[in-house]
Batch of 3 targets.
Target 1
Amino acid sequence: MGKFVVDKRSACDTRKRGFTLMELMVYIAIVGIVVIVAGQAFSNSTKMRIRTQSMLKASEVAENVATLFKTDVAQMGAKSSLESNATDGSDDTFSGVYDSVYMYPKVDGDPDDKVEDLSSFEFVPTSPAPNTNLEQFKMRRLRYDSDGKYEAVEEVSWILEGKVLKRRCLVIDGSAGDDCAPKGSSGTDLDNFTVEMATDVDSFKVLPAIPWHKADDVTEGEDEYLVFPDESGEFKFVYRYDAAKHIQPLFVGAGGKNVILKKFASNYKDDDDPAASTEKDLNEVYAFKNTSPDASWKNLCGDSPIHLGADTTYELSFNVYPEPGAENAIKSFVVNRDHMAVGFRNVEGEPIAGLDDFAFYPPLEDDAKDIERKVRFSLKSPISACIAFTFSFYSPVAASAPIVFSNLKLRVAESSVYKFDPNTTSVSTKYKKNVKAFQLRLQVKRNGESGEAILVIPTPSNGPTD
């Protein structure tokens, strides 16, 4: 039987064999590289986490402060409060304007040589040394109680002093509030109502929306926003269809600020008068300056159209009322059956694409002379057109009613068209009342990382009442 022989020397040599010096050095080098790479990755991850947290914190602070700023500024210019009705004591009427909301409402006989400023905000210019980085934005508004009644006029200031953003409130008129200094406060008393809103503020900019205006060399007293008719306010109507197309021709006023239209056609079907059933044409009249020559509407519209630009808001307004002394037969006007509208037409008499007519109600009250009708619109592209009024009555009674049109105007709605310019931080006193929005740019730092908040805040109450 054979035997299995073990080579003891080979086994012993195998057990005693280890790493060579070269292998060990290579191993240590590999482990060192892995440790360095892992350590660097961990360090970078930690730094990134810290930077991210700092940026998030800075952004959070900026956004929180921006929200508080928006709450203040959105109320800018609020000037009327709920008042009790003198007759029955109910709270269903509003007060007049509290003039102290305005920065400077100039009054007759005022010896102070200031320009009237009906806005409710003010930028305080940068102060000289040592406060070389002092910026201040002031705004005024009403404060109300829980029932919407007047308590006070407040002036809120946001101040960047060095790197610290502060908020201060001062009562201009009325009672003091919990967070607002009493009227006439100054020095330490005023400082007690100054709150630190944020530190490490790199930038605090409040940009006013620059309102639309034609030029700075407008003649004093001229309405630079007026598009039609002209400073005289005189206009005339020219009818589109000739007399043969109507049972009774339209009466075209001789011009001026008041024009009377009467004897409209009716589409009422009279079985005893077959001809009446064919008279379906809309009454349509075009408005032109009173200085326009006597010509057809088509020639006038072709020679002297109204040019309207894109991205601009326009306001068309007029008064309409019954002819004084005449019976107000227009009371028989029926909605969805009778029709009165104003719009624009091109030289071919066609409506403008994308700009529908605006329907309006007739004057149902005898004393409606001072009731103004207003419509606002804007265009995506410029047009050249003419103003047209259309009328269609079913009732012969309503069609016989004489109606007066007055104060017809087409203007640029200056307070609705604006832009922000990062290089412009102020608006001339003349146009401050038309500023209807502000842009806040706030930049805050935390641990060397920046967070930013950019916010647009509408301020519809700034300026005089519309």
Target 2
Amino acid sequence: MNAIILSIGDELLIGNTLNTNSFWLGNKLTQLGINVIAHWTIADTKEAIKSNINSAQNLAQIILITGGLGPTSDDLTVEAIAEYYNQPLVFHDSVWDDIQKLYAIRKRPIHLGSKKMAYLPKNAIVIHNTTGTAPGSMYFSKNTLIASMPGVPYEMKAMMRLTIIPTIKNHFTLPFIHHSYIYTAGVGETILSDALVDFEKHLPSHFSLAYLPSVGKVRLRITGKGETEQKLNEEAKLLTKNAASLVQKYIYSISEPSLEKVLGQVLREKKLQIGTAESCTGGYISHLITQIPGASDYFKGSIVSYSNEVKISILNVHPDTIKEYGAVSEETVQEMLLGALKSLNTDIVIAVSGVAGPGGGSIEKPVGLVYIGVADKRHQIIKKMHFTNNRELNIELSAIQSLVLLKVFLETYYEVNFLSEV
């Protein structure tokens, strides 16, 4: 079964408003086992609305429309749908009552233009708005469900939860759907794809594998559809286990998408405390760690040694080290690690120094060169990385790769098994 999401609004087309509705609706429909085949964003004109509804009906059984239901002159969705079905607009007393009650609750004088929203096509099935004024509406034709909803996200979501999703479940026969996830970090999707090429070739026809990359991470999604839920879940579990075995060194979880949360859980269980000494990241590693509730259990603090002066005075990096090797060097990061262990009095530290850009680079040390280290009182791992010419991306990549190196450090020296849940 196919669905198309139709978003109406000039503000979406010109970039004044971010279309979060399509993202949310696509996720909900996918969870129901419905194939979302298109997200269309169109202008506030009757001609565009009618022609796109007509095109969508030839491709999908479910069409979800958002936007254009307000009281102003540019809200034309209701009129366009009425013309598309060749239906007159009919005044709904119950909708007008809802609008009047909401104005009374909010203690605001009612705007006469709001009466426009009580008119809907004669063939409309009314969706009452429990959180706003503009009603939604549903239409059935040619075994197709068309639902029109406000563009205001919380109003749209309430209509979906209370009316449209139950209607879809009652009207259509939906397959069971199962999504399994494998969360990886510190590896590109091409390397993962090479490792999983035979796995993909032998996937059952009712399963698929998707690669979902983000900065420093790739999420693998194994999706299956079937008529028997228990059988589908058993198949998915086995396939996930098989895929994980092929890329196990890159995996940090199959249940938790947040790398920093997973690492925090390990540090808490091991009763380890951590700190950071950050130069080019400017405290971003600490930000990632401390955005997890309860991080105070294992995070002691950070020294943002952005200048050489602070590296020398707080972290005890020797001036001759910086003079001979430079602030961006393995030798400097090694001394930053030692200094942070002493100053922060913690079990493990992360240290990073690099050329974030866009200036400050050279032939020997170009923009994007970063040294990352993790150490305790007995062991050290330091890696030389080459990133991009983009400052913001370099900072984010440095922070993510620092957490990846922490994962490797914990696996190597603290016998942590990030695949224990598989």
Target 3
Amino acid sequence: MGENGRAAAVAEAGRQYDAGEFLALLARRVARHTESPVAASAGEMRPYLTDEMAPYLAGLGFDSRIVSHGERGHFLLGTRHEGDGLPTVLIYGHGDVVPGMAGAWAEGRDPWAITPDGERLYGRGMADNKGQHSVNLAALGCVLKVRGRLGFNVKLLLEMGEELGSPGLRAVCREERAALAADVLIASDGPRLSPERPTLFLGSRGAVRLRLVAHLREGAHHSGNWGGLISNAATVLTHALASLTDARGRLMVEGLRPVALPAEVRAALADVEVSGGPGAPAVEPDWGEPGLSPAERVFGWNTLEILAFSAGNIRQPAAAIPGTAEAVVMLRFVVGLDWHDVEPILQRHLDAHGFGAVRVTVADGGNATRTSSADPWVGRVLESVRLTTGKKPALLPNFGGTLPNDVFVEELGLPTIWLPHSYPGCNQHAPDEHNLAGVLREGLEMMAGLFWDIGAG
């Protein structure tokens, strides 16, 4: 079939979107209340896999089985095997979502229905992640409809706990390593760099969430009687936090800063412009690590952010010196640091700066990952996306946020390539989550072209 077949598969993807077939399929999935952080929705998790996804995948020629790990970890493992000598692609997605937040959406929108408003399509999961994995699976169907086969093997891993931190994912990948063996992971999550520019990212930054506590004494004591005589936990913790970054957000803890920005990363980010699109905050040129571009600061460097701070009662402050103060901070980091080392490095820094009363504990963490841009799969995907869209894709060494990509790298040993079908202003994790019609349609065409090319050898 050659080029004519490729063009037909891409055209079929566009037709399915324009005819409303894809959105009808997606609306059925959005309607399911798969809120993994909500205990009352626990009974919705397995049915998304057994009642919705498994029958759909059977229609694409997949054999599927459901694996559970603990009470919160539910996984669908699917396989379409066409030949022992063919390449194998692992596709990942998650069917769980954050709470729907019904009643908080503008104009009374129902989070469990797709509501169009111009280019925007509102609904919980439209961007994260039902819309994205639905694009990839529908694109497989477009290739099958035109060619009758894929020309490669596909394995699929869908989980229902990503919004909880993916409980059981690492264990399942370790236990099912043979069943999930593949040549490459190709998946979709997170946002494009901008709505107009197709994007590839090759991994994700690591993340560690830490709790810093200054516990100086039990209770609080009158600020008139004791002010100037006893230490204030809020003051101690405030100065401890100030030692971690400077006044412009530059990370100051040696051992947590990258040694340098690799030349490969600098080259990849040379033409990358960071913009969240309409409604996003403006990038501040003088915030963060000096001497780096905005793209280098978010995709190539480490950052530490204070997420929450507590001392006393801000709503009903008492005239008393707090004996305890605590803060939660998040370190995002690139390849070169092991998250298990973060707690001792930070504690040594605080001790050395006279803040030994502040103790550090890790809440959770995961490592950074980055597939080399020289990997043959990267060039192959870049060229396919360029051919389909007529655009130069942005190539990011890693996602600025964090995905469970370390599991696929460390447990399955895979190169990883992510092609997001969303954009930064999508309001994921908030009321009014939405996706853009143009991004979804182009994503369908882009993935149909890519899967055609992989099958063509």
